[in-house]
Amino acid sequence: MDANEVLRQYAAGEKIFREANWRGISLAKANLSGVDLTGAHLSNADLSDSDLSDANLNWAELKGANLSRANLRGAKMLNGRMHNDRLESVNYFG
């Protein structure tokens, strides 16, 4: 699935992308508030400056993902695998 398809489906009201394969996808500056990415594969994805507030990232594979300046307020991240990720200025608390 490419970025345009993801954004089209999200705009149409789809928020459940469990176990989606978004490896290497570029969704910088995307509004994906409330998205369910449980178990999704997001390795090397560019999610910088994106709105992932209230997202479900439980069990998501985030190795190498760029989450710089992403809004993760209210996001669930139980057992998310985040090794060597770019997390500069992430808005997670508050």
Molecular structure report:
The chain is largely without helices or strands. The protein has a single domain, classed as E3 ubiquitin-protein ligase SopA (Pectate Lyase C-like), CATH 2.160.20. It contains one helix and no strands. It has one helix spanning 3-11. The N and C termini lie far apart (32 Å).
In short:
The protein has one helix at 3-11. It contains 1 helix and no strands.
> Low-confidence runs (pLDDT<50, min 5 residues)?
none
Please compute the radius of gyration using only Cα atoms: 11 Å
Structural class: little secondary structure
Q: Can you count the beta strands?
A: 0
Helical segment tally? 1
CATH superfamily: E3 ubiquitin-protein ligase SopA
Oligomer: single chain
CATH fold-level assignment: Pectate Lyase C-like
The level-1 CATH class: Mainly Beta
Number of structural domains:
1
User: Rough shape?
Assistant: globular
- How far apart lie the N and C ends? 32 Å
Specify the biggest β-sheet: none
Topology:
Layout: H1 3-11
Feature tags:
single chain, 94 residues, little secondary structure, Pectate Lyase C-like, 1 helix, 0% strand
